[in-house]
TrEMBL record:
Signal peptide (UniProt feature, chain positions): none
Domain FAD dependent oxidoreductase per the UniProt entry, residue ranges: 4-360
Keyword match Flavoprotein: yes
Swiss-Prot/TrEMBL keywords: FAD, Flavoprotein, Oxidoreductase
Lineage: Bacteria, Thermotogati, Deinococcota, Deinococci, Deinococcales
Cofactor: FAD
Protein name in UniProt: Monomeric sarcosine oxidase
InterPro entries hit by this protein: FAD-dep_OxRdtase, FAD/NAD-bd_sf, MTOX
Length: 385
């Protein structure tokens, strides 16, 4: 059988791509090396921030707006809450320059007319008693932003894909991928599948199938997530506290977090590191006690009040990041029939329905719903010297 679209990797992007292609009536099959949603890739850990004023660049605003429409559609179809609209608070130093995340966010919000407020340290203390800003800090507040529930989102996309006729093969890694005339051949342990087009959304494993071409553009980084016990749960519940991103100095002096989304589950907080690379097969999966202590003492103490240093839970997760943090959505170097969509650089979840849809449309030869020029290979710098 010749499929119209075969999707390799059914995480955030691949589940959305499969659902999008199936909804358009294509004969589709999706493969995953595990049984998604799972905890070994880039899409687990309970929550992901979504916000409309994307400081990462103006090219992402149409993408997130399209995604927001698609999240609403998926919520209506599934009857589930997928996005907690808590608002987002982004804190920065009001004396900082263009590198400041809050300042860049404000600029994008003004450019695209995103509803927002600018808050002083005193405003924040009054409205969100969980946080203490220093006198030179200020905040951007976006009321319609919030927290996506990633495991639910992926499960809903996969259920919908199946309902629309897609085949799903869990625990079935794609071992090889080759262009063969008017089709692409994908070999698994048990069979060889053929499709007119392939979407390669294998996240941190993409280099296994794409080799050096991808490895030059994207690297894998281990990240640590910690859930701390609030000493005042009332100021951290999702009805009162927003998601937050806080830059309190240069370089890696920043962190982000979420309200307590399940009572007693703790407040999830994380920072990010882009200096030590990993691979998904060799990465250390547990979290050392000193990593949690360092996160608390270096970033949270004195800023996020009403949070105790008592660690309730910790996990690791993987970023697949390009040198400039930009996405990659383009044909594979060896075939226009293979669309690569997986370098989401730590900010991809919110965009995954629109990116998945873009990949599905590309695979089906239809025009994209959003402009993808900013995400081509040629737009991404290389890690190669
Ligand atoms: C700690 C952390 C925090 C983040 N926070 C945010 C946030 O707040 N907001 C935001 O928007 N984004 C955030 N991101 C980024 C976002 O979560 C990722 O960009 C997104 O989830 C990546 O999705 P993906 O589909 O590319 O990868 P994944 O979801 O990992 O999917 C890849 C899939 O491919 C499968 N696979 C791999 N190889 C094969 C193969 N050979 N054959 C078959 N299947 C294969 C894997 O099993 C996996 O299921 C965060 C990421 C991390 C790690």
């Amino acid at each position: 059988m010749l499929y119209d679209v075969l999707v390799i990797g059914l995480g955030a992007v691949g589940s959305a791509a499969l659902s999008s292609a199936a909804r358009r009536g294509a004969r589709c099959v999706g493969l995953d090396r595990f049984d998604p949603p799972h905890v070994l890739g880039s899409s687990h850990g309970e929550t992901r921030i979504t916000r409309e004023a994307t400081a990462e660049g103006p090219a992402y605003v149409p993408l997130v707006r399209r995604s927001n429409a698609l999240w609403r559609d998926l919520e209506a179809w599934s009857g589930e809450t997928l996005l907690l609209r808590t608002g987002a608070l982004i804190v920065g130093d009001e004396r900082a320059d263009d590198l400041d995340f809050a300042a860049r966010t404000i600029r994008v919000a003004q450019q695209f007319d995103v509803r927002h407020e600018q808050l002083s340290a005193r405003d924040v203390a009054r409205r969100f008693p969980a946080f203490t800003l220093s006198e030179h800090e200020h905040a951007y507040f976006e009321p319609h932003a919030g927290a996506l529930l990633p495991e639910r989102c992926i499960a809903a996309h996969l259920r919908r894909a199946r309902a629309d006729g897609a085949e799903i093969r869990a625990n079935t890694p794609a071992l090889t991928l080759e262009a063969a005339g008017d089709r692409v051949r994908v070999r698994t342990a048990g069979e060889t599948l053929e499709a007119a087009s392939v979407v390669l959304s294998a996240g941190a494993w993409t280099s296994d199938l794409l080799g050096e071409a991808f490895a030059e553009r994207a690297r894998v980084y281990r990240q640590v997530l910690c859930w701390f016990e609030p000493s005042r749960p009332d100021v951290f519940d999702a009805a009162h506290a927003p998601v937050f991103i806080w830059q309190h100095g240069e370089g890696d002096a920043h962190f982000y977090g979420f309200p307590e989304v399940t009572r007693g589950g703790g407040v999830k907080v994380a920072t990010e590191q882009l200096s030590v690379t990993s691979t998904p097969d060799t990465v250390r999966r547990d979290v050392r006690p000193d990593e949690a202590t360092d996160l608390f003492e270096r970033h949270l103490a004195g800023r996020v009040n009403a949070l105790s240093p008592r660690l309730l839970r910790a996990e690791t997760c993987l970023y697949t990041a390009t040198p400039d943090g930009g996405f990659l959505v383009d044909a594979a170097p060896f075939s226009p029939r293979v669309t690569v969509v997986s370098a989401c650089s730590g900010h991809g979840f919110k965009h995954s329905p629109a990116v998945g849809e873009a990949a599905a449309l590309r695979a089906l030869g239809e025009p994209p719903a959003v402009n993808l020029a900013a995400f081509e290979w040629s737009a991404r710098p290389s890690y190669a010297p």
